[in-house]
Design a protein that fits this description.
Protein name: YtxH domain-containing protein
Distance between the termini: 15 Å
Largest sheet: none
Number of helices: 5
Number of domains: 2
Order of helices and strands: HHHHH
Shape: flat
Organism: Salinicoccus roseus
Length: 106
């Protein structure tokens, strides 16, 4: 039996998008944004400049980088301070993998 979830979700998304375009404001917004997207696709340097503009605020890329580094440091600190927790998580992962493998064999 094939999994039909993904195709059904995609079909639902397409139908939902089509129905949402019935509204005139939505259509105009989509057209406007698609024109912007086309422009930036043809002018990638301007898109890069817009993303990393120096308006006194850190760029979105820098903000994302800082967020990732924060979470990396937090996870590393947890690993160092709680080796038992790390081992428990690894054991749980191994248990789930074994159960999944057994389920696939059946």
């Amino acid at each position: 039996m094939d999994n039909k979830l993904i195709p059904a979700v995609l079909i639902g998304a397409v139908v939902g998008a089509g129905l949402s375009l019935i509204d005139k404001n939505t259509r105009q917004s989509v057209l406007s944004r698609s024109k912007d997207l086309k422009y930036y696709a043809q002018n990638p340097d301007e898109a890069k400049d817009k993303l990393s503009s120096d308006s006194g605020q850190p760029s979105k890329i820098e903000g994302l980088k800082d967020e990732i580094m924060f979470w990396k440091e937090t996870i590393e600190e947890i690993r160092q301070n709680n080796p038992e927790l790390e081992q428990s998580i690894k054991d749980a992962k191994d248990t789930f993998q074994k159960k999944r493998e057994q389920k696939q064999l059946n």
